[in-house]
Design brief:
This protein has about 140 residues and is an alpha+beta fold. The chain has one domain. The chain is built from two helices and nine strands; from the N terminus they run H-H-E-E-E-E-E-E-E-E-E. Bound molecules: zinc ion (2 copies). One zinc ion (ZN) binds next to loops.
């Protein structure tokens, strides 16, 4: 009986660890972002900086078609009309949504300092918890 209980208990413990682990992963975005800056490694949990911005879809100001911009430094060419826009004019275009680079879901995005920037400053994926920040030094608790 004691042995059987011990086996059951160890199974419960390992099950508990498996359930807790993915939750724990998303608990410390600040800590993670710092370590990702330090090591400059690419992981699934997040990125920082404009160069690592998730792919964006903006609206063509001429014909309102969606223009997909994979990289923040790519120029934007409308596939429907003759519209061509430099990546520097990104802030003037209407951002429709950002795409999660991990699971391809549409991300939620927003700004922390709308008076300073015309661009999204953060984006988060509600599906896989990938998170991107324009800058890494903000304290999210002051939101
Ligand atoms: Zn167009
Ligand atoms: Zn995702």
């Amino acid at each position: 009986m004691t042995g059987w209980l011990a086996v059951l208990f160890s199974k419960l413990v390992s099950l508990g660890e498996r359930v807790v682990a993915p939750l724990r992963r998303g608990d410390g975005p600040n800590k993670f972002r710092l370590s990702s800056m330090d090591t400059a490694t690419t992981t699934y949990d997040g990125d920082t900086g404009w160069a690592r911005r998730p792919p964006a879809t903006v609206e063509c100001p001429r014909c309102e078609a969606e223009i997909f911009q994979h990289n923040a430094r790519d120029d934007l060419d409308c596939s429907r009309c003759v519209g061509e826009y430099s990546h520097e004019s990104f802030a003037d275009l209407r951002l429709l949504y950002l795409t999660c680079p991990v699971c391809r879901s549409r991300m939620e995005h927003g700004q922390r300092h709308p008076e300073r920037f015309d661009i999204p400053e953060w984006a988060t994926c509600t599906d896989c918890r990938y998170h991107w920040e324009f800058e890494h030094s903000y304290d999210t608790r002051t939101d």
